[in-house]
Amino acid sequence: MERIKLENLSSCWGYPPTDKFIWSDWLFMETQYPARRRPKYLNLFKIREPLPAIVSILHRISGVLLFFPGIPLFLYGLQMMLESPESFARLQSILIHPLSKLLLLFATWFFLHHLLTGIRHLGLDMHYGLQLQHARLSSKLVLIFGAILTVLAGIWLW
Amino acid sequence: MVKPVNRIITGAHYGLRDWLMQRITAVMMAVYTGSLIVLVAVYRPEGYEGFKSLFSIQWVKIASLLCFAGLCWHAWVGVRNVLMDYVHPMFIRLTLQVMCIVALLGYLIWFLDILWD
């Protein structure tokens, strides 16, 4: 479809808000979603994000959580594991607690999600799975495999 | 003629360097994690002595340190991107970035200290 740019339309019409305006997109939006009935949500909790967006933001959130408190907790655990037999026993007694096992399970899921979505992003960087259906499918696969591997890790932990 | 420079002090390092290094370190860590799981499955360390002797092998220590250094670089690029997206005032962003660098360098030294104790 040919795209006609109408410059300075906003100044005479007041809509759309930018002067870099693509006529066919505007026509599509107006016919599909007339301006008066189009819902305008700025509330994040009312916007329903598509699955790839959810998977992507979880990649970022898990990354931040792995950075903090992830890395210091990991180092603390590693130190207890390798310092002395006494500290090793102390670490074991901490990890035997159901609450710390639950936390460890969450950490495992964050880690696996970050790893799997990372592999997905590497694919996207190499232009694999850029089509919408493929992006949705890979998002689903990432969530499913993340859940399966977390359950397996949970079985191994208990 | 001199081209005007529009670089900002808390911006990204320009060019491919950070973007590419984040991916290279990601692959490094994935390979290391897989190898470590295989190593533990084969070696089956029992108790304190088992893990201590596993992490006393020189090449395990070197590979672990390389991986952790990669983790620090990877985390730095990631955290910097997050700060660039959400924290806009230059001074606050710079402060947070410096705090992250100091923390990551501290973690790296801590890791070194744990392995080469």
From TrEMBL, chain A:
<keyword id="KW-1133">Transmembrane helix</keyword>
<dbReference type="InterPro" id="IPR014314">
    <property type="entry name" value="Succ_DH_cytb556"/>
</dbReference>
<keyword id="KW-0408">Iron</keyword>
<dbReference type="GO" id="GO:0009055">
    <property type="term" value="F:electron transfer activity"/>
</dbReference>
<keyword id="KW-0479">Metal-binding</keyword>
<comment type="function">
    <text>Membrane-anchoring subunit of succinate dehydrogenase (SDH).</text>
</comment>
<keyword id="KW-0472">Membrane</keyword>
<dbReference type="InterPro" id="IPR034804">
    <property type="entry name" value="SQR/QFR_C/D"/>
</dbReference>
<dbReference type="GO" id="GO:0005886">
    <property type="term" value="C:plasma membrane"/>
</dbReference>
<comment type="similarity">
    <text>Belongs to the cytochrome b560 family.</text>
</comment>
<feature type="transmembrane region" description="Helical">
    <location>
        <begin position="51"/>
        <end position="75"/>
    </location>
</feature>
<keyword id="KW-0349">Heme</keyword>
<feature type="transmembrane region" description="Helical">
    <location>
        <begin position="137"/>
        <end position="157"/>
    </location>
</feature>
<protein>
    <recommendedName>
        <fullName>Succinate dehydrogenase cytochrome b556 subunit</fullName>
    </recommendedName>
</protein>
<comment type="subunit">
    <text>Part of an enzyme complex containing four subunits: a flavoprotein, an iron-sulfur protein, plus two membrane-anchoring proteins, SdhC and SdhD. The complex can form homotrimers.</text>
</comment>
<dbReference type="GO" id="GO:0046872">
    <property type="term" value="F:metal ion binding"/>
</dbReference>
<keyword id="KW-0812">Transmembrane</keyword>
<dbReference type="InterPro" id="IPR000701">
    <property type="entry name" value="SuccDH_FuR_B_TM-su"/>
</dbReference>
<dbReference type="GO" id="GO:0006099">
    <property type="term" value="P:tricarboxylic acid cycle"/>
</dbReference>
<dbReference type="Pfam" id="PF01127">
    <property type="entry name" value="Sdh_cyt"/>
</dbReference>
<feature type="transmembrane region" description="Helical">
    <location>
        <begin position="95"/>
        <end position="116"/>
    </location>
</feature>
Automatic annotation (TrEMBL), chain B:
<dbReference type="GO" id="GO:0009055">
    <property type="term" value="F:electron transfer activity"/>
</dbReference>
<keyword id="KW-0408">Iron</keyword>
<keyword id="KW-0249">Electron transport</keyword>
<dbReference type="GO" id="GO:0017004">
    <property type="term" value="P:cytochrome complex assembly"/>
</dbReference>
<dbReference type="GO" id="GO:0006099">
    <property type="term" value="P:tricarboxylic acid cycle"/>
</dbReference>
<dbReference type="GO" id="GO:0005886">
    <property type="term" value="C:plasma membrane"/>
</dbReference>
<feature type="binding site" description="axial binding residue">
    <location>
        <position position="74"/>
    </location>
    <ligand>
        <name>heme</name>
    </ligand>
</feature>
<dbReference type="InterPro" id="IPR014312">
    <property type="entry name" value="Succ_DH_anchor"/>
</dbReference>
<keyword id="KW-0349">Heme</keyword>
<dbReference type="GO" id="GO:0046872">
    <property type="term" value="F:metal ion binding"/>
</dbReference>
<feature type="transmembrane region" description="Helical">
    <location>
        <begin position="55"/>
        <end position="76"/>
    </location>
</feature>
<dbReference type="GO" id="GO:0020037">
    <property type="term" value="F:heme binding"/>
</dbReference>
<protein>
    <recommendedName>
        <fullName>Succinate dehydrogenase hydrophobic membrane anchor subunit</fullName>
    </recommendedName>
</protein>
<dbReference type="InterPro" id="IPR034804">
    <property type="entry name" value="SQR/QFR_C/D"/>
</dbReference>
<keyword id="KW-0812">Transmembrane</keyword>
<keyword id="KW-1003">Cell membrane</keyword>
<feature type="transmembrane region" description="Helical">
    <location>
        <begin position="96"/>
        <end position="116"/>
    </location>
</feature>
<dbReference type="InterPro" id="IPR000701">
    <property type="entry name" value="SuccDH_FuR_B_TM-su"/>
</dbReference>
<comment type="pathway">
    <text>Carbohydrate metabolism; tricarboxylic acid cycle.</text>
</comment>
<keyword id="KW-1133">Transmembrane helix</keyword>
<comment type="function">
    <text>Membrane-anchoring subunit of succinate dehydrogenase (SDH).</text>
</comment>
<keyword id="KW-0816">Tricarboxylic acid cycle</keyword>
